[in-house]
Amino acid sequence: MYPKKYEIVKVSVDPVIFTIQQGRIKVLLQRREKEPFKGLPELPGGLLLAHETGEETLQRKLQEIISDGTIFFTQFYTFTQPDRDPRERTVSIGFVALVNEQKIKSWNNWVDTQELTELAFDHLKIIQAARTFLKENSGPSLIRHFLPSYFPLNQLQEVYELLESKKYDNRNFRKKMISSGLVEETKKIEKEVSHRPAKLFRFV
Amino acid sequence: MYPKKYEIVKVSVDPVIFTIQQGRIKVLLQRREKEPFKGLPELPGGLLLAHETGEETLQRKLQEIISDGTIFFTQFYTFTQPDRDPRERTVSIGFVALVNEQKIKSWNNWVDTQELTELAFDHLKIIQAARTFLKENSGPSLIRHFLPSYFPLNQLQEVYELLESKKYDNRNFRKKMISSGLVEETKKIEKEVSHRPAKLFRFV
DNA sequence: CCAAAAGTGTTAGTAGTACACCCATGA
DNA sequence: TCATGGGTGTACTACTAACACTTTTGG
User: Fold this and answer.
1) Which residues 112-171 in chain A have a CB closer than 7 A to strand D?
2) Fewer Cβ close by (within 10 Å): the C or N end of chain B?
3) What residue spans of chain B are helical by DSSP H?
4) Which chain B positions have a beta carbon within 8 Å of A136's beta carbon?
5) Is B117 left (phi over 0), alpha (psi -120 to 50) or beta?
């Protein structure tokens, strides 16, 4: 059987960074500066350096991009198609990262997931896989990262509805959330809105 | 910022192959033939070859080991600790694979997950992560792979109880399974048992 | 006839679903 | 006073949970 040709590869870390703004799910992309795929949008990933775990590489990349080290992320799949990078073989560890919109300064590079066009490499496929992961794992432990610390219940409902592509009855949703014990009412209320201000809740 | 030292690594695929026998969860290990960790048990993994996806590498390994190409498997996590292989950097893509006991010819290399001793590399950690994955994702789509095509409902219940470490009420469990529409009664019955033979069910 | 595991029904409680109107605020 | 989104209760249905005895087979 031997000898076999063991593949020596580079490893990249590709974060699909999601946020929700104005009822739309958006991802952060950057414009690719080099060939191949020069000029096309790509995920803001990077290669693994010596002595770094994948999680550390990601953390370093997130600092460069968002300069806020407290972003939630989790691995979801590793992409190994031999020809996914035309130059040399690169395995990509896919991460999902979640940011709430208040942490975002500029909306320049955020693209609606429903309006994605041609992307570099297999990044479209990676984003779709990330979106599927998000849908299949929607639950308080992920969803909370889309929201600020204090939020109205209706905003929480909107996030659920978006991620799961379904509607909830407002009264039943509220009852369930409150009785679940995962969220609690606070004394804060919404401000500067031209309608009845909402009570703000937080995760316990 | 540049130049940076991009890490060039090998990629291995490490399957945690589970089965259930005599009410115990077991994993397949092999004895390591080379240094480092010579003589210790290890996962039956292998390195990625040129032109292979991780899934193809795994398929090839499974053929070598079990000679039955119809084994269910799924990725669960990629391990990137820089020093996890003391020789050279190796990233490991962890897979969970599930086999039903009837496909197993020899029980030589199967070890009870509760009796694991010192293993090569970080393979103990990988097995524990796989076990957690299994617990968190227990459901018909995974559990069915532990069972033969035709099985008694009580055996299905045992599998659930083992993986989730909890007990179900026998009557309620049966009602739920049958009314779920995921399993159906067949005309086959258990044979050569010294007690009332069970009706056999199958997944639809 | 004994041992061993298979199989079965009813009731009470809990959780989910459907549904329509009034409330508080700013403009 | 109007427009906008916030906030509430009740009745019905469906699922979950608790619980003990009879049945079928081989030895």
Assistant:
1) 152-155, 170-171
2) N
3) 54-66, 123-136, 140-143, 153-164, 170-180
4) none
5) beta
Chain centroid to CA B87:
27
Which positions on chain C have an atom < 7 Å from some protein CB?
A: 3-10, 16-20, 23-27
Q: Do B75 and A78 touch (CB under 8 A)?
A: yes
Distance CA A96, CA A74 (A): 5
Q: Does the structure show a pLDDT above 80 at A159?
A: yes
Go through B11-46 and write b for each residue having 16 or more CB atoms within 10 A of its CB, e for each that does not: bbbbbbbbbbeeeebbbbbeebeeeebeeebbbbbb
Interface contact A82, partner B, CB < 8 A: yes
* Mean predicted confidence (pLDDT) in A172-199: 96
Q: Residue-wise over A31-67: b if at least 16 C-beta within 10 A, else e?
A: ebeeeebeeebbbbbbbbeeebbbbebbeebbeebbe
> What is the rounded distance in angstroms from the CA atom of residue A121 to the CA atom of residue A119?
7
List the single protein residue with the shortest CA to C1' distance from D15. B176
Q: Provide the phi-psi class of A37: left if phi over 0, else alpha when psi is between -120 and 50, else beta.
A: left
Q: Within 10 Å of residue A102's Cβ, how many Cβ atoms?
A: 9
Structure tokens at B4: 């940076």
**Subunit contact B7:A8, Cβ cutoff 8 A:** no
Task: Provide φ and ψ at B198, rounded to 5°.
Answer: -85, 150
**Contact yes or no for A54 and B80 at CB 8 A:** yes
Q: How much is the average pLDDT of A164-190?
A: 96
User: Does the model's pTM come out above 0.70?
Assistant: yes
Substitution target from A10, A14, A91, A136 for chain B, most B beta carbons within 10 A = A91
Residue of B104, B128, B108, B100 whose CA lies nearest to B116: B128
Assess A54–B contact: CB distance below 8 Å, yes or no: yes
Query: pLDDT digit string (tens) for A67-107?
Result: 776 899 999 999 999 999 999 999 999 999 999 999 998 99
Closest CA to B29 of B97, B113, B111, B103: B111
Backbone phi, psi, residue A90, to 5° = -135, 125
Indicate the pLDDT class of residue A6, thresholds 50, 70 and 90: confident
